[in-house]
Every structure is written in C-alpha cells, then in structure tokens.
Amino acid sequence: MLFPAEHETIDKGHGRIETRRIWVSDELTADFLDFPHVKQVLRIERKATRLDGSPLPNRPGTEIVFAVTSADSTKASPKRLLELNREHWGIENTLHWVRDVTFDEDRSQVGRRSAAHAMASLRDIAINLLRVAGATNIAAALRRCVTHAPEVLRLIGVVRSARV
Fold it and tell me: What is the CA angle 119-130-164, rounded to 5?
C-alpha cells in the first residue's frame, strides 16, 4: 500500500475523467542512484475513465511512470512536477501530432537515415515558421501556402513584401 499522494489533479473533459497523482522523494540521492545530478525521484499515476466510470477502450486502466529530476524540492514541488509532466504533452500535441497527422510522417517513403532526418528537420522548420507567423492551424496554413506563393517567399525571407 502506498502513502497518500502528495498532489492530485482531476480533470473532466473530452468524455472522460483523468486523475493524476504524484509521489516524490528526495531521500534517494546521487549517492544511492547511479544517475548524475539527481535531486528527486517521482512516481506518477495516471488513470482515465469514461464519465460513467467505465474503462476507456484501447487504454490501460492505470499508467504508472517513474522519473528523476535535477530540481530540488525548493524549486520543484510535487504540484509543480505534476504540472511540468502535464505540460510535456503540449509539446507532443503541438509538434509531434502535427508531424504525424498533417505531414503523415509515419508513412514517409524517405528511407535512408540522413534523408529521413533532413526531411524531419525541414518539416520542423515549416511548422515553426508558420507558428511564428501566427498560424494556429498548421494544416490550414499549409493549404494557404500552396495558393499564395508570394506570402511563402516573404515568410522565408526571400522577398520583403508580398504583392499579389
């Protein structure tokens, strides 16, 4: 049996309830763990169910994640560590999801390692340029780029103004 969680969040949305709990310890120091600069270890438990409490299809009932951090307890409380873990999915959703879905990267036929890496870098550059230009929907912004070449040239710095 575990001690009570040091922090817990419960979110309701998208037809489900998600509960996240965190346990943190600074007792396992660098002297005990063979991991450089470790200050805290943590255990995060995530549980998602439908609103009626039934399990979600194709998902485990409970996920447990273990992690270490170099931030000590004065800089990263259990609440803050849980927030940081949650914010990680923002990166996943804004970059990796766009690459997977909008660019259909998983079905890319670029097979050689260096070519595949170069294409992934070019996709990242395109996504970041569009975000800097204010795009919130990358797919829609890419469709606009296809029909508005002068704007694309301005965006990448080839021309200073987009005269159509």
Answer: 110
